[in-house]
């Protein structure tokens, strides 16, 4: 009996699987089978959630906070988020202009759903996190890429942004510190983009999830502080996943224009209801509690960043700038494309990444999914031992390529 042909959406129904999640799942499966695999694919800190945060979640269970939560988030967490965003430069923001979602992804996706009409354009500087264009496509929008490169540290050229604006432009997504590049955008660049946004009535969606992972002498400045004149067009996006090692708690938050937040909250009330109060109480403890664990993790990332940079620098033919933030490196592997492994051609970064996980036992992400077809992404959100051993195996594999 033949299965019926189901009609799917030309937008959401045609999305590919997230490559980072797929590669991470493959690496975990290999590890469960007893294979030592370097976990360079996941954007997930290997630290445990701080004890005081876990205790807040447990206390919420003991207190019976296991019912439906308000769709937009519990009031004390929305207040804490508003206070944080005010401190970051979004002056005058109140709790009713904040929203708690299932991760920062939830904030981003619901913002695009609320904002975009079919055919609307969203400007995205590249290399970019792979989910941005897929979210835009899922709601019927179109992504317009604005390229940056390693030669200039992946700093955005505002004039390229201006040149990319058309009458269909609706928003621009910024990500600083950035995934996959680790680039931190200078204040003057963000200010210039703010002026362009005001001039063309563009909503600026500023994804600041890696805020606490910035390495001296670089410093973090929220888009809200760098471009205060664009405050009425600014949506700040953040969460507790990266800084507090809370990826599985699924709590992200946003803050911006009330008319946008209200529509996002209404959408969430129909799509998923509120995020679990147990998780929200834990996030509240993270945002308002002691910062000792946060500082300890930051210090570890500083060391890991240097270890990975030093190890990658030992590989002849591989070029990699030292990133200012996040926990990724995006080395240029162009010199290895076109070579062969055991007679098999290495045609592109996808085939190279496949060979690396299969033969060097290191899970990396091919750069083409980030609009960087010359690179592969390494995450250093893992131990120094994993970094040294894994990059060592990658180096040995790359040396074995012929041609």
How would you characterize the overall build of this protein?
The structure is a single chain. Helix 4 packs parallel to helix 5 (131-138). This protein folds into two domains: 12-48 and 293-399, Aspartate Aminotransferase, domain 1, CATH 3.90.1150.10; 66-288, Type I PLP-dependent aspartate aminotransferase-like (Major domain) (Aspartate Aminotransferase, domain 2). The protein is an alpha/beta fold. Helix content is 40%, strand content 13%. The protein starts with 18 loop residues before the first helix and ends with a helix. It has 13 helices and 14 strands. The chain has a seven-stranded mixed β-sheet with strand order 2-8-7-6-5-3-4, sandwiched between helices. A three-stranded antiparallel β-sheet has the order 9-14-13. A two-stranded parallel sheet has the order 1-12.
């Amino acid at each position: 009996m033949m299965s019926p042909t189901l009609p799917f959406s030309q937008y959401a129904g045609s999305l590919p699987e997230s490559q980072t999640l797929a590669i991470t799942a493959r690496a975990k499966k290999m590890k469960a089978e007893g294979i030592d695999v370097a976990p360079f694919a996941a954007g997930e800190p290997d630290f445990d959630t701080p004890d005081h945060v876990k205790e807040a979640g447990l206390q919420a269970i003991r207190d019976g906070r296991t019912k439906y939560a308000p769709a937009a988030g519990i009031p004390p967490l929305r207040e804490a988020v508003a206070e944080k965003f005010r401190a970051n430069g979004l002056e005058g923001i109140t709790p009713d202009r904040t929203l708690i979602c299932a991760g920062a992804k939830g904030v981003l996706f619901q913002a695009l759903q609320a904002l975009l009409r079919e055919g609307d354009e969203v400007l995205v500087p590249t290399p970019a996190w792979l989910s941005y264009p897929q979210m835009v496509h899922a709601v019927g929008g179109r992504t317009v890429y604005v390229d940056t490169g390693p030669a200039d540290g992946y700093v955005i050229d505002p004039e390229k942004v201006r040149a990319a604006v058309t009458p269909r432009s609706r928003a621009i997504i910024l990500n600083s510190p950035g995934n996959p590049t680790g680039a931190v955008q200078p204040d003057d660049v963000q200010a210039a983009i703010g002026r362009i946004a005001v001039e063309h009535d563009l909503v600026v969606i500023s994804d600041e999830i890696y805020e606490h992972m910035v390495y001296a002498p670089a410093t973090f400045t929220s888009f809200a502080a760098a471009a205060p004149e664009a405050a009425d067009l600014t949506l700040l996006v953040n969460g507790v996943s990266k800084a507090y090692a809370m990826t599985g708690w699924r709590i992200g938050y946003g803050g911006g224009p009330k008319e946008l937040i209200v529509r996002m909250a209404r959408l969430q009330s129909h799509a998923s209801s509120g995020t679990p109060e147990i998780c929200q109480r834990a996030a509240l403890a993270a945002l308002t509690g002691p910062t000792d664990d946060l500082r300890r993790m930051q210090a570890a990332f500083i060391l890991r960043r240097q270890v990975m940079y030093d190890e990658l620098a030992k590989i002849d033919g591989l070029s990699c700038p030292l990133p200012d933030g996040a926990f990724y490196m995006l080395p240029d592997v162009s010199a290895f494309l076109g070579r062969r492994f055991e007679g098999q051609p290495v045609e592109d970064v996808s085939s190279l990444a496949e060979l690396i996980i299969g033969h060097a036992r290191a899970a990396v992400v091919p750069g083409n999914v980030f609009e960087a077809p010359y690179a592969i992404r390494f995450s250093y959100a893992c131990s120094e031992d994993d970094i040294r051993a894994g990059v060592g195996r990658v180096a040995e594999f790359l040396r074995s390529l012929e041609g």
